[in-house]
Amino acid sequence: MNLVRQKKDHPLAGVKEIARRANVSRGTVDRVIHNRPGVSEETKRHINAIIEELDYQPNVLARRLALASRGTVRLGVLLPSVSEETEYWKAPLEGIDKAETEIKPYGVELKHYFFDQNVQATFARQVAQIMVDQPDGVLITPTFEEESIQLLGFCREKQIPAVLMNSDIPGQQRLCYIGPELFDSGYLAAQLTDYCLKPGQKVMVVNIAREIENNVAILGKVEGFLAYFREKRSEEPLVHFHTTDTDYVSVSAGLSALLAREKEIGIIFVTNSRVVLVAEWLEKTGRKDIVLIGYDFLSSNIDYLKKGYIDFLICEKPQEQGYRGVMTLFRHLVMSVPAIEDYLIPIDIVTSANYRFYRN
Amino acid sequence: MNLVRQKKDHPLAGVKEIARRANVSRGTVDRVIHNRPGVSEETKRHINAIIEELDYQPNVLARRLALASRGTVRLGVLLPSVSEETEYWKAPLEGIDKAETEIKPYGVELKHYFFDQNVQATFARQVAQIMVDQPDGVLITPTFEEESIQLLGFCREKQIPAVLMNSDIPGQQRLCYIGPELFDSGYLAAQLTDYCLKPGQKVMVVNIAREIENNVAILGKVEGFLAYFREKRSEEPLVHFHTTDTDYVSVSAGLSALLAREKEIGIIFVTNSRVVLVAEWLEKTGRKDIVLIGYDFLSSNIDYLKKGYIDFLICEKPQEQGYRGVMTLFRHLVMSVPAIEDYLIPIDIVTSANYRFYRN
DNA sequence: CTGAAAGCGCTTACAG
DNA sequence: CTGAAAGCGCTTACAG
């Protein structure tokens, strides 16, 4: 196939053309473009005028390619390890890996610091390790607040840009946050709940996590969820169920006891991906009448979505969060592109009718 | 800030390294990589072995940059013109423009062929013009089936790759389709409807379009919507309302008449972005009790979402559709990257609680 | 069948 | 303060 119609006759103006017109070298033009010192005011003005006139747009690809010759940039990534119990974290990791492959050719090295979500000490240990390694930039999942703040302080002192992912810590200085607005995520869940609520029915709010009181993500969602009902309804039709035992046996026992008492429950909202445990219980007890709302695009959750035990999954593109987190650091450090301070991830609603088209 | 820790010591293996190991020139390696003729079987095998061994990953940026020296590639884009009435098409156009800016530096020229959605003749005229211009690739919104098939036939004959966008035409040969699965889109709307339906209520299905019987998009969604109720309910609680008058006066008159008769209607489903007209009517008649479901992330629709007259908007990332359509052609023609035959766009649910985070 | 050279657009030492 | 040269990793004529 002959794609070549003609040689490019109107190449977009580049550094070369600007240099030609300004009667200077390309190096000088480059200095002006990047506001680097060592150019006389006069030449600078002249060159800037030409840049304006030509509406010069730098070729991003060429820039990146040129930068490939620079030295190594080391990035650190702090995130929960993937276990059977916390399959969720596979997705951000995939996004991180994807970004790594993409930017490896440009001299970026990435080191993972994994911790066990259930053991605060493992988090602390990895934070300490990061302080020893002193990478050039870090991507942090701030599961435990205290140590996270400590790490952020260290970063500020050492001028290491830090990106927060998945949940934010208010009032802390960081390059940016990438993740959902947790309050709105819970608020949305409440809105869906309200649409599905039939007259006289009650709603059960379920937290299943080893750590609840310190879990920023869960607390934020619950807050949003409750705010909705406070706003829209005079009496809150809510029943609460918390458990720090995350195994099926404990959860099912708790559910059985509660639902025996509370007969009017028509909807169950689970504040994280452990919704699968409730779905399992619904299946075993044969209750298809209850609407179940939960979190995250995990294969086990999708299975129950298909079977009809889970009705809505709220998903926040975990893979994209990881990908974008790494890329933000890369662009900031290597390309000097400013970061968006709060990059709020879409809050998506997934049902059995649209899950096949969802993209993490 | 000192980013440069060390000069790259482990550069990823590239063409140069492969050439060195194979004792050939970089040109020969390039020929093997791209399966171009003119290399002896033996060297080919040898080079391929080394490629395997090093797990060589080509540097996409460098490749694109090198290709910038090639001649011009001309792309044609056939899509509805943006008018006040059809603001929807602004979004795909934005995506197309974004792609154009991105690939312009690589010798791509893009020509728009706009037509009036309401006038089939304008579509036919632009199809004829494309046949005269014979671009190297086309992106088509196949609003009118007959002329679209004609154009696709022409493309096949002339070996011009064609990408379909927004709606598909079954059984036609094309490079790929980029858009939603329309049936599932309607099915999802029905599912939401069903969740919101209170006992005894009926649902009104509304089509507002100059052309309904020939409108592939509307027909597909309606089919999915009806299929759901046929599947899940013994009696269909549906009332239909079609109008080819798309002004507010006609629509409101029709609605008023119908709702005076049908008192049990609790939910209205509008099959396209004209849902705004129904929202306006609900506002003017002060009916906040009816749940309204419609399509597309338009500013006027979002206004009514905020005010509470529209409850759900189904959105299918129109901007991404345009962007991806152009990029698919680009990658196919310039980078020889194979296209995905059916790129099905996510079907998103937008409410007043998550619209602020939505990304087209 | 194969290689040497030039080029894509930008950046970076280095020399002056 | 400024320029000439080399380089990023890949591709492309052209010459043999």
From TrEMBL, chains A, B:
Q: Which PROSITE patterns match?
A: HTH_LACI_1, HTH_LACI_2
Q: Which SUPFAM superfamilies has this protein been placed in?
A: lambda repressor-like DNA-binding domains, Periplasmic binding protein-like I
Question: What are the UniProt keywords, alphabetically?
Answer: DNA-binding, Transcription, Transcription regulation
Which part of the chain is the HTH lacI-type domain?
Answer: 13-67
Q: Which Pfam families match?
A: LacI, Peripla_BP_4
PANTHER family (alphabetical):
LACI-FAMILY TRANSCRIPTION REGULATOR (PTHR30146:SF144), LACI-RELATED TRANSCRIPTIONAL REPRESSOR (PTHR30146)
Task: Please state what the protein is called.
Answer: Substrate-binding domain-containing protein
- Native species: Ravibacter arvi
